[in-house]
Specification:
elongated; Sld7 C-terminal domain-containing protein; 370 residues; 7-stranded mixed barrel; Sld7_C
Length: 370
């Protein structure tokens, strides 16, 4: 027995789906001998070899093409496929699928493979295999002038494995991973936090503000005099000095009880400036303007209605002049009440009729004047 022999696993054809055509002249083999012993392979522990041997005498079912990146393969069986030279249809089919595009994979494999079912139907199942191409160095090739050695395409078959389960997503009740504490030989020094730094800065700022307040004479004068009065007050139950004399520790100003003046009110309210008085709108003037506008609107409506009742409508030549005379005369008669209160509609109608009688003459009066 030679060192490298091959065992024939299956010889048959692929049946195309929805047709009676067959891709015949196919044979699957596996290497046996010293190569198999060196790689640790055993035919009894090779599921693909056993499955192909069990399919002898039956046709395999072609399912279609599959991208190698979409499936998980078990290529440890080292099962290769050969095509008979006289099987023209099978050779053309596999050349179109495996040799139409350049091989760019790092493993030297084709991007597409042919999925074959080992069951009795044309449905995908867990026992499917994938036939793909693998670039290998040509055995016994002659030296070439090119830098890259010549390679040949070997057709391999591998089992399709189920995809591994996706990693479990974190649950809401899972414990949060914590970083382990750093181990140090020395004692841990106290670190100054940002809060303590902020408090120290605030305390220094307050102390500086108090120092500035002592330097201002205008603000410190009432406080100084109040302090002198409080220090010079007699103790409860004590006796007053004889002959009304003042002690050595008391000054002439402290002997007289003085009430310090109250601080300026504007000092307690820094947001209010004493030099810029707040300008408040005149609410009464605004109310008077609105009242006058409403009264003039009433006079306008009554004037237009009065002229309309007398047959004088908009569009006549004398309408504007009559309207202006009656409107201005009525407003002048009510000038003392226009900005004080709402005018009475009856009073407005009476005044408008009186002015209309002066300017609008009826037919009887016109004939009498003529």
């Amino acid at each position: 027995m030679s060192a490298n022999n091959h065992r024939l696993l299956y010889r048959g054809a692929l049946s195309l789906p929805d047709t009676n055509l067959l891709l015949d002249g196919l044979s699957f083999t596996i290497r046996v001998g010293d190569t198999q012993s060196a790689s640790g392979l055993d035919l009894l522990n090779n599921p693909l070899a056993l499955a192909l041997e069990s399919m002898r005498g039956r046709n395999l079912h072609l399912l279609g093409t599959t991208n190698l990146n979409d499936v998980w393969l078990d290529a440890a069986g080292d099962v290769s496929m050969d095509i008979h030279p006289k099987s023209t249809l099978s050779r053309m089919y596999f050349e179109n699928i495996l040799c139409s595009y350049p091989i760019t994979s790092a493993k030297g494999r084709t991007d597409e493979g042919i999925r074959v079912s080992l069951s009795d139907n044309n449905e995908p199942g867990p026992n499917d295999i994938l036939i793909f191409g693998q670039l290998e160095a040509a055995p016994g090739s002659e030296p070439s002038t090119s830098t890259a050695p010549p390679k040949t395409l070997r057709i391999l078959a591998a089992r399709i494995l189920p995809a591994p389960p996706a990693p479990a997503r974190p649950r809401p009740d899972d414990p949060t991973p914590r970083q382990p504490p750093l181990l140090s030989n020395g004692k841990r020094k106290r670190e100054t936090s940002s809060l303590s730094l902020a408090l120290d800065t605030h305390a220094k700022r307050v102390a500086g503000d108090k120092g500035k307040a002592r330097d201002t004479g205008a603000d410190a004068d009432p406080i100084r005099r109040a302090r002198e009065v409080m220090l010079g007050m007699p103790k409860p139950g004590g006796r007053a000095p004889k002959d009304g004399r003042v002690g050595k520790s008391q000054t002439k100003d402290a002997a007289v009880f003085k009430v310090p003046p109250l601080p300026d009110r504007t000092r307690s309210m820094p947001h209010v400036s004493s030099q810029s008085p707040v300008a408040t709108p005149d609410a009464f003037a605004a109310l008077a303007d609105e009242l006058e506008k409403a009264n003039k609107t009433i006079v306008k409506k009554v004037t237009v209605q009065c002229l309309s009742d007398r047959g004088i409508r908009k569009g006549r030549d004398d309408f504007n002049e009559l309207y202006q005379y009656i409107y201005r005369g009525t407003c002048f008669a009510l000038r003392t009440r226009m900005r004080v209160s709402s005018v009475d509609a009856a009073v407005v109608e009476a005044l408008v009729d009186s002015h209309a009688n002066l300017y609008v003459v009826d037919d009887e009066t016109r004939s009498r004047l003529a």
